[in-house]
Write a structure and sequence with these properties.
1% of the residues lie in helices and 31% in strands. It is mainly β.
Length: 522
């Protein structure tokens, strides 16, 4: 079975509203199970802005990026560490063993439970126990202290809940979500389901969100752009966000100024046509793992506005709009976190790692947009409709601020299957880029309709090392099952990379690894 690690560094955070809680003391049958205001600023939408269940065990705090005042520790300190240090030999090759992460709440249980039900009553003295639940999330939050689980019983709840300054601790997180094993509660309608501002050590889990005219769930730093501690340590597990927005720049999950976060085992579909399923503005040290994205307009995931050290791993994205994954983007200067530097180069994004994802359809699978030192490795890309990938620079230097051009990035070990008659250029490279600093290596390129037209060489900015071109990757089923078969040329022919932990199924990589999102289990 999967091994869990937990953090040990103490963090002293308390909830602003303290006091006794009338909720129930948690019992063995009420444990957390596997979960083991208005925004003061949002980025401007510009013409160039592309914003147009069973979960895996979660992860410890990633340690890359700038040091933090909490001095959190991890079991590894490599340059690309995201907390995925678990590699357990079970003796059974069918049991996933690699890349299993944990976070601050893994293995922890609530010390008290506050119950919420649609037919409850928000009595500040008596609500919260199982026999007398509160009616709204807001009333339950007012009763929460570190270690509290706010349990939403099945049913439909009112939207537009604004939650500010809610803080658990590393040893005693706060949970908000449904009851494990029961039907997910639904937050429906309104402008946004939940708005979380300046929160810490919080787990949002087992919720369904639908029908918001704005963002589905909004998390921000309350405008404290220079404070990396403002909103930190937030987990999303097994949330289902769908049918959001009015077709404009609205997102299913909007994250602004969030540091140290995890998004696991969730589903995002029908996010607004001009927005993203998950949109990051100035977010740092995150892991997005084992999620499903489908039928989204602008992007599945976008990381911009100074975002850094985010790993997007083991997800499946189907028909996710203009750019399924947008590494970087275009952000109004006033919305960068941290604020832009006047005497040093800036970037829309740095160290974004896209690993072992399955990306099907959409106009372009991947876009490097003002992204520096970024990586796309071991992804399986199936039939993009316009470009295989894009290299663009949408935010350029001006007299006030210098921006590094997109560059020093890598595209390695990917399997790319496409129909040549459906795409224009293999690679779209725009002006003002440093595309010549990219590395392309060990990718497999196959045009299913015209194998002799598979080569992207004429469109690549540099020569590729060790490509496989025009050879059928011999996947189980090009229409749905993208695992490798034993005769695939992708098997054990990739380049070893320090960043690789587990494949799309959490299987361990061979040495050398296979190309694409799946290792062959023999």
């Amino acid at each position: 079975m999967r091994t869990l690690f937990s953090l040990v560094a103490p963090i002293s955070l308390v909830l602003a509203a303290c006091g006794s809680v009338p909720g129930d003391t948690a019992t063995a049958t009420e444990t957390q199970g596997d979960t083991s205001t208005d925004s003061t600023a949002t980025e401007t939408a510009t013409a160039t802005d592309t914003s147009t269940s069973t979960a895996a065990d979660p992860t410890e705090v990633p340690t890359t990026g700038a040091p933090t005042t909490d001095a959190t520790t991890s079991t590894s300190a490599t340059a690309t560490d995201t907390g995925d240090t678990t590699t357990t030999d079970t003796g059974d090759p069918g049991v996933p063993t690699c890349g299993d992460p944990v976070h601050f709440a893994s293995g922890k249980e609530p010390t008290q439970v506050v119950h919420v039900a649609p037919d409850g009553v928000d009595d500040p003295v008596t609500c919260g126990i199982a026999a007398s639940p509160c009616q709204t999330i807001g009333a339950a939050v007012a009763l929460a202290t570190p270690g509290t689980a706010i349990r939403l019983h099945p049913g439909t709840y009112a939207a537009d809940e604004f939650i500010e300054e809610l803080a658990g601790t590393e040893d005693a997180p706060i949970w908000i979500g449904g009851i494990p094993g029961e039907e997910r509660p639904v937050i429906s309608g309104g402008t946004e389901a939940l708005h979380l501002s300046r929160v810490r050590h919080l787990v949002i889990h087992d919720l369904e969100v639908t029908g918001a005219s704005g963002n589905g769930i909004n998390v921000d730093d309350g405008g404290l752009f220079e404070d990396p501690e403002a909103t930190r340590f937030v987990v999303f597990e097994r949330v289902f966000i769908h049918d959001i927005g009015d077709g404009g720049n609205q997102d299913c999950l909007k994250l602004s100024g969030l540091n140290d976060f995890w998004i696991f085992g969730s589903e995002f579909t029908g996010c607004s046509a001009g927005g993203s399923a998950i949109d990051h503005v100035g977010c740092h040290r995150g892991l997005i793992l084992d999620n499903n994205f489908s039928d989204n307009g602008g992007n599945a995931i976008q990381t911009k506005g100074g975002s850094e050290d985010i790993e997007i791993r083991g997800n499946t994205m189907t028909d996710c709009g203009q750019r399924a994954i947008n590494m970087g983007g275009s952000t109004g200067f006033e919305f960068f976190r941290p604020p832009l530097l006047e005497n040093a180069p800036n970037a829309e994004a740095r160290n974004i790692r896209v690993i072992a994802n399955v990306i099907v359809g959409g106009e372009a699978a991947l876009a490097f947009v003002g992204c520096v030192d970024c990586l796309a490795a071991n992804n399986t890309i199936i039939r993009p409709q316009h470009w295989l990938l894009r290299v663009l620079q949408e935010t350029v230097s001006n007299p006030a601020f210098e921006f590094e051009p997109v560059g020093n990035s890598r595209f390695i070990n990917n399997v790319v299957v496409f129909d040549r008659n459906q795409i224009s250029n293999h690679i779209n490279i725009g002006p003002d880029t440093a595309a010549e600093t990219f590395t392309f290596a060990s990718n497999l390129w196959f045009a299913a309709d015209q194998a002799d037209q598979s080569s992207p060489a004429g469109d690549l900015p540099v020569a590729e090392t060790d490509p496989i071109v025009g050879v059928d990757p011999a996947l189980v089923d090009l229409d749905g099952d993208f695992h490798l078969t034993p005769g695939s040329p992708a098997v054990h022919s990739g380049m070893p990379l320090a960043e690789l932990t587990g494949d799309r199924d959490h299987q361990c990589w061979a040495d050398p690894p296979s190309r694409g999102a799946f290792e062959l289990v023999e």
